[in-house]
Amino acid sequence: MKLVVTGSLGNISQPLTEVLVAQGHDVTVVSSDLNKEAAIKAMGASAAIGSIGDVDFLTSVFQGADAVYAMIPLSFTEPDLGGYLRRMAKNYLQALKATQVRRVVVMSGWVADLIKSENLENEFDGLEASVTFMRPGAFYTNFYQSMDLIKGKGLMGKLLTLRYSGLWALLTGKTGLLMGNYGGDDRIVFVSPKDIADAVAEELVLMPEQNSIRYVGSEELTCNEAARIIGTAIGKPWLKWVLISDKAMMQGMKIANVPQGFAKTIVEMQAAMHSGKPLKNFHRNNPKMGNIKLADFAREFANVYHQK
Questions:
Q1: Is CATH 3.40.50.720 the right assignment for the domain spanning 2-137+192-216?
Q2: 49-99 residue pLDDT tens
Q3: Beta bridge partner(s), residue 169
Q4: What letter would DSSP give residue 121?
Q5: Would you say 67 and 200 are in contact if contact means Cβ atoms under 8 Å apart?
Q6: Which residues of the chain does CATH 3.40.50.720 include?
Q7: Where in the chain is the domain with CATH 3.90.25?
Q8: pTM here?
Q9: In 10 A of CB 269, how many CB atoms?
Q10: Is 251 exposed, middle or buried, given 0-12, 13-18 or 19+ CB atoms closer than 10 A?
Q11: Among 129, 134, 54, residue whose Cα is nearest residue 92
Q12: Residues 6+ apart with CB under 8 A from 302
């Protein structure tokens, strides 16, 4: 099959490309970074260098494709995250309609049905194609974004910085804390990007008669259980994940000079996770869990952590 993978060589798209090439598919990887071209070709795929903000570019890449994996990278500079996501989704829609691609797998979000500003799925209404929306849990790789904070770099005992993963770090003496407006004993489904890649690879070669939603997870844990697994792997078994209020989260983002619209969306997303509703949706769909557990990732995380 002729398949198009967007997302450059990111956490999902790189292992996805590896799987698809190994299966013998003709794979084109879309990247905005010309420096990634050689690495993409070395994997046995073709490189299409350009921006998903360019409808003409997308249309040219999608010509003749049997299926497309469509994802939208987050932009931390966009003041209106929801508006940005909708614009990019409309670009995909226009290019997919023009090229009449019959199979599309869209990277959606864990709380897509709960946060209107983050829901990309409605933007694909009217597309004459078989569409599956992927709703993965919280990425294991989000922990990398808090690595420096867990190490204690910066100002001890003070709020240091914000990361998209929703984790704040407050380090006081020996005690390491992860903080967010979801956390503590909230039960969350965590997921390995490699397990997501395997699920997307399965979906790309299917042709369901109706549009569908696929939840993806690797392990269900409380946030504190997850923090303890990561902490134990790096020699900080006391690592905890403290739940703070939505108001405190917004105030912290303001201090960190995060655009108000972006901050509002992130707080809403994490509040939805704290509500437990996404977990109920996950259980209702009862998907099979992936193979990679957080303890497996924690060993990988620890190797990077101690080398940094």
A1: yes
A2: 999 999 999 999 999 999 999 999 887 777 787 888 889 999 999 999 999
A3: 178
A4: G
A5: no
A6: 2-137+192-216
A7: 140-188+220-307
A8: 0.90
A9: 23
A10: middle
A11: 54
A12: 233, 234
> Please, are residues 130 and 211 in contact by the beta-carbon 8 Å criterion?
yes
Token pair belonging to 46: 């073709």
Q: How far apart are CA 138 and CA 193, in angstroms?
A: 10
In whole angstroms, give the CA distance from residue 89 to residue 110.
17
Structure tokens at 19: 């799987």
Residue range 140-188+220-307 forms a domain whose CATH class is alpha beta
Contact 68, 96 (CB under 8 A): yes
Q: From the centroid of its chain, how far is CA 72?
A: 9
Token pair of 228 as six digits: 């303890």
Q: What is the DSSP letter of 308?
A: -
In three-state secondary structure terms, 29 is strand
Q: Which amino acid does the sequence have at 119?
A: N
Predicted confidence (pLDDT) per residue in 20-57, tens digit: 999 999 999 999 999 999 999 999 999 999 999 999 99
Give me the residue label for tokens 């990561």.
230
Q: Interior CA angle at 136 toward 297 and 7, to 5°?
A: 85
Q: Which two tokens stand for residue 184?
A: 């503590």
